[in-house]
Batch of 3 targets.
Target 1
Amino acid sequence: MSLQTIDFDRLRLEDGDTILDLGCGEGRHAITAYMLKNVSSIGIDLKPADLQTTAERFREFEEPNNSAKSLGLAVANGAKLPFPDNAFDKVICSEVLEHIPDYPPVLSEIVRVLKTGGILAVSVPRFFPEWVCWQLSDAYHEVEGGHVRIFNAGHLREDLESCGLICFDRHHAHALHVPYWWLKCLFWREDGEEDAGAVRAYHRFLVWDLMKQPVVTRKLEMALNPVMGKSVVMYFVKNSKQPGTPG
């Protein structure tokens, strides 16, 4: 079981879809899509080690006798996708754009490879929880591969809509993870030593919650997400006309 940011019901995942998980990391969304429907799921990332982890995790869920579904993995740059125009029914870009210094070319590539009428699900850290992390620790966002910006979700939506996408849904996720990252930043360790006791304790709680998913914490997170959800998730459909590129 892995932590999902994207709601696959809102993504409108269907049998026969071809899906791109851009910046798939260790494969949580690419593998979940494969498990849910008979789809062709493709995960790309810049880190071969993460793709190797994805491949290892996938072995537990692979259905070798089902030719109607597949999972492919490749090292690729989101600003120069190795796919033809209109190649995918669905594209996922979850917790990726905040790591990319020049992200508009990635948005343009997403729109290029997404079919007309196809759906994009994109998520980035929400402004306020992320802003608090930046105030508590410079190291949080200065580490190699860390976050290079705090997104204003409205501005990101405008960038995507300027490419010809139409936003049709939005929600927030992972409110229960916000205190963990605030604690992590407050007690940030740059020396490689073990995290503070409060950080370790809260991490154990999150692992327990992920594995057990008790009703009480599910309801609590649903109530807190609109107020302090760590991620903002938006869903777009590609229009038939592509008026321009984000600036």
Note: Strands lie at 18-22, 40-45, 70-75, 88-94, 114-125, 165-173, 231-238.
Target 2
Amino acid sequence: MGFRSGFVTIVGRPNVGKSTLLNLLTGEKIAIMSDKPQTTRNTIKTVVTTDDYQVVFMDTPGMHRPKNKLGNYMMKSATATLEEVDIILYMVEATDKTIGHGNLSIIDNLKKVKTPVILLINKVDLVEKPGLLPLIYTYSKAMDFEHIIPISAIDSETKKIVMDEIIRLLPEGEPYFPADMLTDQPGKVLVQEIIREKILNLFSDEVPHGVGVEVILFKEKADKELLEIHANIYCEKESHKGIIIGKNGDMLKKIGTLARQDSENLLGAKVFLKLWVKTKSDWRNNDFMLRELGYK
């Protein structure tokens, strides 16, 4: 058997565990994680290379009904990958009793492509095993999947189970990227996502989804041991600005500390991080702002 290489996309409804699975399969925290839906806004490519194969994973935004221009962009990102990849990992939740309208819509899209689809039923740790059987049967009748695998994206044993199936289906071919490449995202984009993750995890539902982050300075100092990073945090309401800053700036300091720690771990350098909070009404429907923040 020769060297194998190919592209794998992970699709599913918001908050089904796609980013958690991506980080498990790659062994690196590239995709941001939150318990809030629609965390991922861009398609993030992460590369896993061994002596025998190279897998390029694409973590896509959760498939949902768009409510603004940002939502439209996210849906285009999610569906555009289906024809371009070699394997599709389609994730659903084991806690579902049946196939909902959202998943039926995704299945309709999957039926239109010739790409092999592996169904991953996630969060099996939350249900009794006998309860899975009716759900597996229901999905197997809805579509002819390449394979159906019950998993838990927080269980380390899941990595081998899923990777073995991916490698089995990968075509033979040369690597697409250098062996030491981890992601196609530049450092400034990774930092933007890390900052946004901290906001998602620290605040209640209304605030985070109206937040966008733009890195306006990403500068390596002469000794290459320090990165100076400045970023704007945009929110849609003045009241949200006050919440993000917090009393005496405490919340903004907390965001900065947590984001700096993760950025240093990921980039392998000391980071000086400066944050500002600005109000930009309805930026998720503003074409200029969407381009500025990398969503166009």
Note: Confidence is low (pLDDT under 50) at residues 33-41.
Target 3
Amino acid sequence: MGWLSGMIGGGLGAMVAGPIGAIIGATIGAGMSGRQTLPQHGPGGFNRTQQRQAIFFTAAYSMIGKLAKADGRVCNDEIAAIEKISREALGMDSQTREFALNVFTQAKDRPEPFAAYARQFGDLFWQDQQLCSFMMSFLFQVAMADGELHPQEETMLLEAKTAFRLPESLYQSLRSRYVGQHSSSVRLAKHYENLGVPNNATSAEIKKAYRRKAAEFHPDKIEGKGLPPEFIKFANDRLAEINESYDTVMSSRK
């Protein structure tokens, strides 16, 4: 919770420009004001890693607020799905979930479009393509929480792809992973795409790709990126997906 206490006590909202800074300030003012349960810091009371964690976290929940309202309204099922992702996929404690929901609520009703949050996130993090890919994967998972990718949601995801400077091939790979996986042949193709290899790759090529992907999502490497701790569990789940894809692909060749 270091980034959360540092954000609230250190006035990060005043230090970050643009819509993300505005959301931080509004969320603290609306939902966390008057609390004495968190330690207070001066403006320099939190480090660069905590700043990156706070900005990443706020951007994520700002963008999913806009995604959830893509069809003009936010339904109870969408809120329940987001709370489930927060609790189970990200393993947040109650206080962090409260902050996340406040960010979500503030962002969904503000006039700034989804693209504004995506652009600011991209401007801050585009040089770290792994972090951008990680955020894109998270956005896809939220967009598909109701089992369907709505046209306006896909428009927003494409805006994120552009803002994050992600290649089209990566976007299509993520889309294939999260959207429309039904038949066994399609599911097997998903596992190949998850590993980043074609279905005619040799076993040696598959093993090499697997080692590279697994190294990308190794817990030590992910923690060094400055992700919020709550997103480390999401990264671990991504590593589990890579392991499953490798096992499935190799088993299909026996």
Note: The CA atoms of residues 76 and 82 lie 10 Å apart.
